[in-house]
Amino acid sequence: MKLHDLVPNEGANKKRKRRGIGISAGQGKTAGRGTKGEGARSGQGGHLYRQGGNLPFYRRLPFMRGEGFTPPNRVEFNEVNLEQLERFPAGTEVTPELLAQAGMLHKVKNPVVILGNGELNVPLTVKVHRISKGAKAKIEAAGGKVELIA
């Protein structure tokens, strides 16, 4: 056996259809596209707005497009700044319940986040769901402690 004797197995290689190349090929003239109509044109099909009288696909969808769309599962936090915590006396344990009693939460059921706007000179123990790095540094600099609620 020589190199020129090597051939692929029967049926392993299949010739591609050369469309529009003569009538004997079986794909000549209209090249398998039939005659006239949208299907015979180049770039045909796939246009989501042309649905043959039906309401176009993306007009059937609810209005969830663009910048106004808000994801349905997002978590909304009650934001509390450090300057708002100044009103509590030294050594107070600040919890979401205490903040709710003080009327500082927009929606009581939502978790609480402490943000670092303002200064804090009173040592407090803060128990919240989330806290920014700057706020944590300022609370600890004032002699307080931070605990995160799971």
From TrEMBL:
Residues 1-51 are annotated as: Disordered. It comes from the Bacteria. Residues 79-147 form the Large ribosomal subunit protein uL15/eL18 domain. One of its GO terms (cellular component) is cytosolic large ribosomal subunit. Pfam families: Ribosomal_L27A. GO terms for biological process: translation. Part of the 50S ribosomal subunit. HAMAP family: Ribosomal_uL15 (MF_01341). This is Large ribosomal subunit protein uL15. It comes from Anaerolinea thermolimosa. The gene is rplO.
